[in-house]
Amino acid sequence: MENTAEKKQKILSCIQPSGIPTLGNYLGALKNWASMADGYDSAFAVADLHSITVRQEPAKLRKQTLEMYALLLSIGLNPEESIIFVQSHVTTHAQLAWILNCYTQFGEMSRMTQFKDKSQTHADNVNVGLFSYPVLMAADILLYQADYVPIGADQKQHLEIARDIANRFNGIYGNVFTIPEPYIGKQGARVMSLQEPTKKMSKSDANVNGFISMLDDKDTIVRKFKKAVTDSEAKVRYAEGKDGVNNLMTIYSCCTGKTLEEIEKEFDGKGYGDFKMAVAQSVIDVLEPVQNKFNDYMKNTDYLKDCAKKGAEMAQRISQRTLDKAMKKVGFMQL
Ligand code: ATP
Ligand code: MG
Fold first, then answer.
1. Which DSSP symbol is given to 213?
2. What is residue 90's DSSP assignment?
3. For residues 195 and 188, what is the distance between their CA atoms, to the nearest angstrom?
4. In this structure, are residues 79 and 311 in contact, taking their beta carbons and an 8 Å threshold?
5. What is the crossing angle of helices 128-143 and 113-121, to 10°?
6. Ligand 1 touching residue 42 (CB < 6 A)
7. Alpha-carbon gap, residue 225 to 277, rounded angstroms
8. Residues 281 and 309 in one domain
């Protein structure tokens, strides 16, 4: 028999069902999940607890949670090899988050840029959950003793806080948590909005032309790229101040594997019209197979729910060990 004694390192990552995931989520996070899943002990969650930090319509949230789950399978994650679950099905996340809240300072949370951004976009609902979002995220990661967390660049600050909280807790109580490292891809870690290329592409953007949803059909993808903001230079080159073009070049590079220099050569002497059509087609080529699988999975929601149930059971079992340890360390009475 093969010697399997060598322990694999662990990865965990989450995505909110706050909308259909975008091309940004795919290139910045999901694509890496799929390529890393094999080499690691991996767990992936649909982070519905996180998504209620902004107001959600209950029926829509339920639908989007199942769709997100189906998409995780459609990008190639295998429920037999990775633990794939819905966050609210596992009780330990909210429990550990409470404990960690008491080891997190108000001041450090106040510096989080996502909180600042989201409290502006949702000025009528700046709730405490939105404020302590990074603490729940720390709990998600630390419960599974993750070595690496594949994320987009926007979540780097939250990952650093998770490390700070873990180090602080370990400093008081001994080694309870593994200190996680971010895994941020070299390219596509920050895909920008097609309409405001200085802002990141986001699935909860009110302007649907700003993002490509992973389920957009061909015509929609072409239309959105045609409308994408560029500049007046009409030259495909990667340079400071050309945020719109830089973003399109990055997307094209991620989807085709071509380097930025190769892309500049390919479109030398051509206008933005041709370039945008090529970018749109490269995105269609990447998303179409995922969409086909998604449509198949959605025909069998019983299978999806069965996978989610098994995933939740496994996640509960593994995370409970860490939670029990933390509860014991802080001095909660044991029976
Ligand atoms: P929301 O607007 O609801 O926060 P989101 O698009 O930011 O949605 P999340 O569920 O918060 O999506 O993030 C899921 C993963 O996608 C995270 O790892 C995050 O870093 C990554 N990600 C989000 N937006 C981008 C982007 N524009 N480019 C690259 N990665 C991204
Ligand atoms: Mg986000």
1. B
2. -
3. 17
4. yes
5. 140
6. no
7. 7
8. no
CATH number at residue 239: 1.10.240.10
Contact assessment for residue 12 and residue 141, using Cβ atoms and an 8 Å cutoff:
yes
Which ligand has the shortest distance to the CA of 19?
1
The answer to whether residue 2 sits within a structural domain is: no
- Tell which phi-psi region holds residue 269, choosing left (phi > 0), alpha (psi between -120 and 50) or beta: left
Distance, in Å, from the CA atom of 15 to the CA atom of 48, rounded to the nearest integer, reads 8
Contact 143, 92 (CB under 8 A): yes
Query: In Å, what is the CA distance from 223 to each residue of 149, 212, 236, 255, 276?
Result: 34, 10, 19, 18, 10
Tokens in use for 197? 């290329």
Q: Are 72 and 84 in contact (CB under 8 A)?
A: yes
Annotated catalytic residue within 7, 116, 199, 200: 200
Question: Which atom of ligand 1 lies closest to the CA of 15?
Answer: 10
Q: What are the tens digits of pLDDT across the range 204-262?
A: 888 999 999 999 999 999 999 999 999 999 999 999 999 999 999 999 999 999 999 99
Mutual orientation of helices 58-74 and 301-330 as an angle, nearest 10°? 100
Which structure tokens are listed for 142? 């630390």
**Is the CB of residue 152 below 6 angstroms from any atom belonging to ligand 1?**
yes
Number of domains in the chain: 2
Position 282 in a domain: yes
What's the CA-to-centroid distance between 117 and ligand 2, angstroms?
10
- pLDDT, tens only, 48-63: 999 999 999 999 999 9
**Amino acid at the residue 101:** N
DSSP states along 207-226: -GGG--BTT--HHHHHHHHH
pLDDT at 1 over 50: no
Helices 92-101 + 301-330 axis angle, to 10: 30
Q: Going along the chain, which residue ranges are E strands?
A: 10-15, 41-46, 83-86, 148-150, 181-183
**CATH label of the domain that carries residue 26:** 3.40.50.620
The answer to whether the CB of 135 falls within 8 A of the CB of 101 is yes
